[in-house]
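User: Show me a protein chain along with its predicted structure.
Assistant: Here is one chain, sequence first, then structure tokens.
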Amino acid sequence: MNIMYGHMYHHMLHIYVWIERIYEEVLCYDVVILLCVFLIINCVVVGDVSAIKIGNCVTVGDRAMIHSSGEVASIGNRVLIGAGANIHGCTLEDECKVGHMATVLDKAKVQKHAIVADGAVVTPGTVVKSRELWSGNPAKFERELTSQEISQLAFDVAESVELSVAHAEECAKDFRQIEEEEAIREEEEQRNPFYYQRITEDVSV
């Protein structure tokens, strides 16, 4: 992991900010990250021109790019950003989703419970309204979202948070804990099934 410090500041608050350490995520300059943020391999977050604020329970997919551009890039809570997405000086409100390889440009806004489809390009200043699906290049309104699709957003966020917490806990273990757990696992796998049989509650025999 390559963490770079610029002329302003970089700080991470709270716990469970998990980053794949064997690849290269770059966090530069003025970047504020809150609780349970899941930054996956090769994503880049650069607040060199102005600040970037990332809320709670946010997932940033692999190879995604978040960049400020004179405008604060603001990402709300429980947001899903797909692999290869480009978030540039815009606002993503709570509980929205930006699909894989999609782009959201300067001063655009994706409102709560809205979805930007995979590969879509949201042009500068565009507002993707709540409960709407936008797609295409340039992105246009396609249809209203169903209640099931909105519920699925919450499920996907919860699943991602659970995974990020599990990874954070695993990455926090030292080598002794890892060796002990490995020894226990091998012992259980190699144990003869006829040993240590549980006594049943059936006493009729």
